Amino acid sequence: MPTVVYQLPDGSASSVDVPAGQTVMDGSVRNNLPGIIAECGGSCSCATCHVYIEGESAGAFAEPSGEEQDLLEFLDGARPCSRLACQLVLHAEMDTITVTVAQSDGS
Asked: How many CB atoms within 10 Å of residue 56?
């Protein structure tokens, strides 16, 4: 089972085992972690699950879809390493994935 390490907006970190087939967003929401609001429930339409993902962790996922890129383009604080956690599906082959939850007005 993949482990996701969430670097939270308050500077703390939380490590969560997330079943393969679920998303980085699912792991956060199901464990009541702060920062990922997930207003649209994972349908790639609100961008309230903005995270930064770099290095090996970023390489574990496919490139963002056009729809995801469109949402990221208009986010305050977006960086080249920005992704939407609802689009980051975990696979059984993954070990540890690290994401930094972006600061948001609702966090």
From this structure: 11
Supply 54's token pair. 């770099």
Model confidence, pTM: 0.93
Mean pLDDT of 37-41: 92
Q: How many CA atoms lie within 13 A of 49 on its CB side?
A: 24
- Inter-residue contact 16 to 31 (CB < 8 Å): yes
State the Cα–Cα distance between residues 1 and 6, nearest whole angstrom: 16
C-alpha torsion sign, points 50, 54, 57, 59? positive
List residues bridging with 82 in a β-sheet: 52
CA terminus-to-terminus distance, the chain? 27
Quickly list DSSP for 38-76.
Answer: -TTSSSSSS-TTEEE--HHHHHTSPPPPHHHHHHHHT-T
